[in-house]
Specification:
By secondary structure, this protein is mainly alpha-helical. The chain has a domain at about 10-55. It has 2 helices and no strands. The protein has helices at about 5-25, 30-55. Helix 1 runs antiparallel to helix 2 (about 30-55). The protein is elongated, with a radius of gyration of 21 Å. It starts with a helix and ends in a 24-residue tail after the last helix.
């Protein structure tokens, strides 16, 4: 399966589990519907992780693990 298709499926699963959680919350109490909330959040975080990985730049220059670290330091020239 292609990644955008999987992202779409997980996105709709997130929406579905959120709606089910709201309906179950209205029918029962929070403790009995907590598992639906956790499944919805797990789907949401998986969706965000997959989208972030797919949209991340692929060039080797931008694969730094620390985004704030720059390779050329400005103002650090010694005279």
């Amino acid at each position: 399966m292609k990644t955008p298709l999987i992202e779409t499926i997980i996105g709709w699963l997130t929406a579905g589990f959120t709606v089910l959680w709201i309906l179950e919350l209205r029918r029962t109490d929070f403790q009995q519907s907590y598992w639906l909330l956790m499944v919805a959040l797990a789907c949401l975080f998986t969706f965000q992780l997959m989208r972030t990985r797919r949209l991340a730049p692929k060039s080797p220059e931008q694969k730094s693990t620390l985004p704030l670290q720059s390779k050329s330091k400005k103002g650090s020239k010694k005279k």
